[in-house]
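Budget justification, computational time. The allocation requested in the original proposal was used primarily to generate structure tokens for proteins on the priority list. As evidence of use, we reproduce two of the resulting records. The first is shown immediately below.
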Amino acid sequence: MSHTSLSTSQLVADMERQYGPLLGGTALYRALGLPSAAAFRQAASREALPVQVFSIPHRRGRFALTREVAQWLARLKASTDGAVGLPAPEESGVADDDTNRRHAMT
């Protein structure tokens, strides 16, 4: 078993232990890295979610299998391991919003 598959299986087990077989509501949109329920609804309407979501009769909202979300997270992590991030604002020569506001007030 490779290191990546071990990490994936551990993540799946941990998430299923914490959430059970289904993710919905706040736990789902946060696990997908979305900032709000509105952002989740918009991504779902655009069919831009990275996992399949579905409805359950007589229950509100949409759900995803915890296992699929965990597997997506593991693939995402594996694809970005070793990737170099963007420079911090001070390194790129772009001032942050607070600095811009302070300069505008003076």
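The second record produced under the same allocation is shown here.
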Amino acid sequence: MVRLDGPLGSRLQDSGHPVSAPAWSARVLRSAPQAISALHREYAALGCDVHRANTFRCTRRACGDDWAELARLAVQLARAEAKPGQRVAGSLGPLEDCYRPDLAPVDAFDEHLEAARVVAEGVDLLICETFPHAGEAVETVRAAVATGRETWVSFTAGPDATLLTAAQVGAAAQACVTAGARAVLVNCIAAELTSPYVRALAGCGVPFGAYANTATWNGAETSVARYGELAAEWRALGAKLIGGCCGASPEHLRAAWGDAP
């Protein structure tokens, strides 16, 4: 099993750092990079196998003229805290809102390629994550693959699982595998609603997994013990990549990993 890290954005927000749109957690690269380093350090000590650099919103569209410098800084922060044998993943997200598939741009390959080339400079792999729109996900995977880096992709149906059906995620994941993705995942869906989406990934022919939110929109938090039970369901379905998304704590990660090999 590959132990994925937990969230950066929600934990930075919980610590009082401003993470408003459009830059979201990338804002903290300017204001408090040491807070990002501290989270990477915590995940490294926890035993995460893969650290996602805080590059999710590091694009020209979201951050302006210094976007590339911010992306390189985010990768440096993750790399500095990762322990030997732990991999650093560059995160590539939707160009607009990960909960607004209607805003997904058409023909976004060149814009995604611009970001992917910069992020790829210092990472071990690229993860195209939190995509609610199949077409943009495929374009981003194509851009990531063009850098020569190993590429993963992860889809979201939103915290309440209303943006995509499990069947739609399965079809989108297969299209991304055809485009060169070497692992497929789901994330940013409430943990209680994630299992059908994990099941939909099982036939894609590549490793698959999940890193879930701990709540629906305005819903009750999933307990550490319950998160562990749900992650055990994902592993029973064949998931090999397990972590946490919005709201997940280090304790949630420990519970999710369980005693799986």
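A brief technical remark on that second record: The beta strands are 2-3, 50-52, 87-92, 125-131, 150-155, 183-190, 208-213, 241-244.
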